[in-house]
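Hello Y.,

Per our agreement to keep a running log of every chain we model this quarter, I'm adding this entry. I've kept the format consistent with earlier entries: sequence first, then predicted structure.
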Amino acid sequence: MNNKSKFLVRKFKVYDLDSIKRIIKNLHPEWFTEEALEKKMRNTTVILGIMILILSLSCTKTETADLAITNVTVIDVTGAPAQSAMTVLITDNRISKIAKTKKTKVADGVQIIDGSGKFLIPGLWEMYAHLGWKKDSWDLFIANGVTNLRVNLGFPDFHEWRKEISAGKLIGLRMIIGSRSADGRKPGRRASPANINNEAEGRQFVRNEKKVGADFIKLGTYLSRDAYFAIVDEAEKQGVNEPVLCIESNLSHTSASIFSLR
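Predicted structure for the entry above:
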């Protein structure tokens, strides 16, 4: 260490922090008045607040999604209180995240729907529905919050509409579609399209309806006992559920229940 370095070390050893403060105060006493110190404190608080805000914003993850519904009140139907000022993110037709709007940063390019003053609930199910013959026959369902239908009586057009909805070509609902009505024949009554008269025809009916896309079998009226039990048995084998039956007089509800009608 040369003489100059030794001199500097000795100088800095003399000037500790308190000594430096005294020197500065002697040179600039106006910096240490009560007013100056209060102003300095305010400025420091403002600067710290800005730094914290910038830091928090920089740490907020940018959320990507196909759709964001912001500032909406969410009712999750679990019995919990309504949650206001929420953002709901939708990705690939599924809810990907629900969080407070003020804590959610949505990426550029995301479609945004402002839900201010509105409520968001899960889509409702209509468990016993009949559709009309036009594609817009479900518009009133959608307008009233129904997004899922269990269509009790199915026809080929309904299955085509469901395919178009799944492909995004048609705005519609999620549908579970039943078969045509599995009816028997009664003397003096107009023949049903199904017209099931025996066990073999009942089993073939189930297989045909499954092939066209039926999710369950609609059991109708005037079925013989043998045809009824054959349909129920074949539906179980084919993995197709069956709804409540409109039972004719020679087959009791008790008999159907004992056979585990679902």
